[in-house]
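Quick check before the chapter quiz. The format below is the same one you will see on the exam, so make sure you can read both the input and the output lines.
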Amino acid sequence: MWLCDGGGARGRGRCLRDGQAPPVVNREGRTAELSADPIRKFLADIAGQAPSTRKRKRAAVASFCRWAVRHELLEHNPMDRIDTIDVPKTLPRPAATGDVKAVFDVICSRRPRKDVPLDVLRDRVLFETAYVCGARASEVCGLEVEDLDLTLDDEHVRIHGKGGTVRTVLLDDRGYVALLKLYLARSGYTSGAVFRASINGNGGPLSYDAAHNRWQKHCAAAGVGIGIHQLRHSHATELINSGVSIEVVRRRQGHASTETTQIYTLLADKVADTEIRAARSKRERGQRR
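Here is the expected output.
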């Protein structure tokens, strides 16, 4: 089958640029009517791969088949007879509070010395913004000074999320707010990107890739392994454990539905179970004495 023999999107794009339609062919190169059977065989051959990988490859085949039907290379879409691939939901992995603090402290103190380089101070504020707001790293990288409302005792930030959505998040951590104001004062930024690249020369926003690489560097220095997205998971989990309602957490995280947010309640249950087991173990040790 053409798609499964390495043609892929790149090969299809090359055919389109040459003004040719990519043929639906078998391994011998003869034009053939694509049916559900070879697709089932292909999916069976990759049955040992991760569900997410198999789902992605099935989607690639489905995309090709839709293209072939649209260009009248196929009369019917064989994917209509192929079952979908379910990917089990995995629980988010929040980082331990102590590990997060260790990375932040490696970057610089919340009360940094005057000789701390601006890009180091930027890193501390950027990553702490992701943590205290429960924001995605890409959302934080895209923040502009105009998104900040630093009215005394009523500080907020406007976060631009997925699908063009915008949410307003309360900045309720006084220490973080003080650090943010210090960073803005030292940088002199009054408009435009809050977190700017230090080497591109035009004051553009720091890219996600650059932020990710910086985070990994700081984690290595702290001797802990935390993914940058785990900062967001940690924030949501801490809110749930503190008794904040699902709807409030949903709005703060920018989730489209509470179904996504409900996952964090499972984590809260696991935390509760761990504490109960620890308490029981302590009680049993006391009874044996």
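If your answer matched, good. The chain has two domains: 34-88, 97-273.
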